[in-house]
Fold this protein.
Amino acid sequence: MLYIHQTTCISAQQTFPNRELETLHDATGNKLLAIEPSYEGIPKSALRRMSKPVRMGVGAALPITGHSTELDGIIIGTANAGMEDCFHFLKQMVEYNEGLLTPGNFVQSTPNALAGQLGMLKQNKGYNITHVHLGLAFENALLDAVMRLEEYPTHNYLLGAVDDISVYNYAINLLDGRFKAEQVPGTGLYNSGTPGTIPGEGATMFLVNTVKENSLAKLVGLETIHSKDEAEIAHQLKIFIDKSLPANETISLLISGENGDSRLMKFYTACEDLLPATTGIVRYKHMSGEYPTAVAMALWIACGIFQKDALPAHMIKKEWPQSEPGYILIYNNFKGAQHSFILLSNPA
Amino acid sequence: MGKIFVTGMGVISAIGNSVAENRMALAAGKCGISQLELIDSKFKQQLPCGEIKITTEDLKTKLQANTKGITRTTLLALHAFGEAIKDAELTEEILSAPGTALISASTVGGMCLTEELYQDAQKTAGGSEYLSSYDCSSIAMYLQERYQMKGHINTINTACSSSANAIMYGARLINSGRANRAIVGGVDSLSKFTINGFNALHILSAATCTPFDEDRKGLNLGEGAAFLVLEKQEDIGNKKVYAELTGYCNSNDAFHPSSLSAEGDGPFLAMKGALQQAGLQPGNIGFINAHGTGTQNNDEVESKAMLRLFNTPPPFASTKSNVGHTLGAAGAIEAVYSILNLQHQEGYPALNYKKPISSTGLVPADSYKKMQLEHTMSNSFGFGGNCTSLIFSKA
């Protein structure tokens, strides 16, 4: 059984170190760029050498790894951490015609650079892994943590996700039709009726173990699916709920991964239609932007809801009657091909 | 924990296009490291590599894989995957069953297409057919779609230990009851990107690599893919079985982004943890397929870690002297070789070895030998301090 104990989030909103979600920070140049902290805890010499995803990941992880609890391992999900360095190196290679190149960018270009860096900074020689399965990279990291805790019930793991908007991935993904051409400020994202979404970036970290006491949230169920068929997704959601949700319980709230891409609405509608009329709906991609591991921020939001943190009106798509949600469902969808359901319960 | 068996294998490398061809080449001490023919790099004449001499176009034809945007990396994976599932007699139905997982690993992914990637990243309109192919996950996504797979799918990237971790993750999915079987492995193809990257680190050898030799000059890059079919004991029936996967452990060296600590804590803990998991003593291991890249740093540290754990290490060698360092594919390719050690009760020699590393005095297995083997170990260590060891046992 996995319980979340601490969580931090660096995002395009004011989420780190303090949380203030009421004021919505809009995109600049159609990108929801992270509001980066001053990274007080990272030695300046190390900070200069870090790429943005490594910097954000280490920054978000430091308050967690700095806790008195000893870590037994580091489990990271990321789709494109390292891409910025990858492109810098590629550029060097082309411009200098495979001449004398500096290896710094090459070494940092592998997505496991963050987990490796965290292992070094924390002097943690335990389990260390990086899942990179695009829109299900974080879900696989979460599942890995679940399995590790089944295997080693006394362990504590640092679990996290990071992705950034690099020049490289923005250009490629824009050409691939992932982003909107027009400006869509704030929640206007959801009413645009056009294909594409708005890119975002961020780092979200968790301390997870099997201890119920003082935990922020309990993971009740997790499912990942590859499919392009909304009927199949609805069918799988029904099976997931039947399997994971205890009898006589209802889902208080859906945290929807809706991202304003008109091509994906059919999936979200199919899932919403399956839920009871009393289930509320919360959206967050207008705050985070879309990136392959954005779903980790939904988990951070769910932890806040269980701690009774107020949610601003701009996040609420549909109100719910319960003041204290018991079960929260997170549905995410990446490019209409990779889907996940995460069910959480209030440990209180 | 139930037993997990390997029921199918597929491999393609610079020494052969099938498991049988690879075994013949290993036993014969064949080296597949040669001058580059298919990659247009400035270093073509200077830096030999373990190149598979089949063009990407020929692979497409052979595999009937003409989907737009398919890359050499995906094609090599498809080649090995196809052999593995045929070998394990997995039908279309079994492949698309919810209990069949696919765990892939890669470090280069579609970035073998260096030029296309560079061009695409500068464009504001148009774009090549490869826009969704550069990502490391594109390989598993292609296989998932081609075989209509509905089970758990994942991609792992821990640099040069990636596919050893894919094998470990698949085994854990089965042990936890989340999959009945897992097709696990990895792939990487040669690219100008990695050739220049490792060259900038000054760890590429201009001659054929000489793992565990005092005068080693660095590594040779290679390309290839390997997939293994892991199944639970109760599902196997009277199918042929190659080996049991008895031990696995992942540990971090927590020292440096691109080199191992002098003490080799990461390699030591990975090997020790795998032994613990398998319930074995160091003396039970009959042969080690070492990481053995041929770099100053790796071979000395790995030797010291082996000495620390085994006191007198069992026969060991590195097949990177046959196929080069295949990065994300290395863990899976060498897992296949470790299973071949067991299956045929034979040890493959370290090629080009002349004299022991002075600080350790360790001598690798330097000739082909028939051996009585019960358990073999395979080591994979990567950038970021990511170290993983696997143990296979005679079924």
Summary: The radius of gyration of chain A is 19 Å. The longest helix of chain A spans residues 137-151. Chain A is about 30% helix and 20% strand. Chain A touches chain B through 61 residues (CB under 8 Å).
